[in-house]
Amino acid sequence: MLKKVAILANGGDVAGFNAVIRGIVKTAENSGVEAYGFIDGYNGLLKNEYVKLSTAEDGNAEGILPKGGSIIGSSTNANVFNYKVEKENGEVEYKDLSDVCIQNIKNDGFDCIFTLGGDGTQKSARDFSTKGVNVIGVPKTIDNDVACTDITFGYNTAVSVAMEAIDRLHTTGETHHRIMVLEVMGRYAGWIALESAIAGGADVALIPEIPYDLESVASKIRNRQSRGKNFSIVVVSEGAKPKGGEMTIQGTRDNGQGVDNTKLGGIGQVVAKQLEEITGLEARNTTLGYMQRGGTPTAYDRVLSTKYGTKAMQLALEGKFGRLTVIKNGKLDDVSLEDVVGNNTKIGAVSGNTAESNLRRVSLDHDLVKTARSVGINLGD
Ligand code: F6P
Are residues 246 and 126 in the same domain? Predict the structure, then answer.
C-alpha cells in the first residue's frame, strides 16, 4: 500500500510546475497518501531536504494553480550520477552519489518519486529506476523536445509569450519599416520558433532542423517590399544555424558532468546584422529569453499539467513505476522511461545533444512545417 510519495522539480523552470505539483498532491490526498516535495530538484534528494505538501486551507500547495515558477524550487546543475564535489584542497571531482539518494529514499520511506523535468531529468529518473527506485516521470520543458510525447508542459505558455512578442514587434516594425528579428529559446528543437511564427503571422522562421540560407530569407523580404510591405518579422530559434555552418554559442554553463553544458544564444543579433548587410534595410533584434519561462501558465498548460499530475499519481496508485506520463495522438497515456532515453541507456551518460540522445526534434513532414510553408512563411531553405 502506497503511503508516502515525493515530488522533485528539476531543470529550467516553466509555467505549469505548480499545476503539476497540485495535481499530484490533490490526487494523493484524495487517496490517503502523504505527498512531499524535495527542495531544488535532485539537489534536495541528495541533501535529503524536503517539505510536506498540502492543499488544505492555508497549506503550502493551496492556490498554486496559476502561480509561475516552482514552490519547491528546481535545479539546473544536479546530475547526482556525476555530481560536482569540492575536495578540502579546493580540487573538484565528480562522483556518483546516487546511492546516497537511494538511502535517503529508503530511510524516510518514500514509496515513489515523481520527477518533473526534461530529457536530462528523465535520464536520471531512468537510471534510478534501473537501480530499483520507484519513479514516475512527468515531461516538462518549454523546448517541447522530450521523446515519446506530443507535448511537454510549459511549452504552450512559452509559445504564447513568443506570439505576443511577435504581435508587438509587428506594430513597431511596421511603423519604422524595419526587419524585426525575434530570438526564441528551444535548444536543438525549433518547436517554439515554428509554432509562434505561425501563431504570430511572422514572415520567416529559422529552426535548427533546417539550416538556413540568408539569401532565401532576403528574397522573401524583397518580395514583400515589392508588394509594398516595408517591414518583416523573422523568428529565429536559438539553435538555428546557416547551411554548412555551426550554431552560435554564448559560452558554457557549469551544470556539472553528464549534462548538456552548452549555453546557446546570440544568433538573433547575427541574423539581424547580416540581413541589414544583404538587404540594405534596417534590422533590430530582440532576444526573448527567460520571459518564455516565467509567469502564469496558459489555460492549456494548466489543464495539461493537471492531467499529467493526476495521471502520474494514478500510475503510482496502480503500482506502475518506471513510466513517463505522455500525450500520444491527443490522448493521455504513459510510456516506459526506457523508451524515453532511447539509446542513451548507460547509467550517468550525458543527456542533451549527443548522438545517443533521444530528443524530439521537428520532423520535416510535420504538420507545422507544412502549415508554415502553406501560409508563405520562409523557413530559410
Ligand atoms: O531547456 C530550457 C531552456 O530554457 C532552453 O530553451 C535554454 O537554452 C536553456 O534552458 C537556458 O538554460 P539556463 O537556465 O541554464 O540559462
Answer: no
Give dist(CA 55, CA 196) in Å, integer: 35
CB 61 within 8 A of CB 54: yes
Nearest to 122, CA basis, from 304, 321, 324:
324
pLDDT tens per residue, range 115-137: 999 999 999 999 999 999 999 99
310: in domain: yes
Q: For residue 250, tell me if it sits in a domain.
A: yes
Domain co-membership, 22 together with 138: yes
Say yes or no: 24 and 57 in one domain.
Answer: yes
Burial string for 114-129 (b: 16+ CB within 10 Å, else e) reads bbbbbbbbbbbbbbbb
Angstrom distance (rounded) from CA 282 to CA 208 = 25
Choosing from 142, 192, 250, 291 the residue with most ligand 1 atoms within 8 A of its CB, the one to mutate for a pocket test is 142
- Catalytically annotated residues: 143
Ligand 1, atom 12, lies closest to the CA of: 12
Residue range of the domain that includes 140: 4-153+297-341
Task: Indicate the top mutation candidate among 143, 195, 248 to test ligand 1's pocket, ranked by most ligand atoms within 8 A of CB.
Answer: 143
Whether the predicted model's global pTM rises above the 0.90 cut: yes
3-state secondary structure of 6: strand
Q: Is 33 a domain residue?
A: yes
Give the pLDDT confidence of 296-339 residue by residue, as tens digits.
Answer: 999 999 999 999 999 999 999 999 999 999 999 999 999 999 99
> For ligand 1, atom 13, which residue shows the shortest CA distance?
12
Write out the E strands in 44-132.
50-53, 83-86, 92-95, 112-117
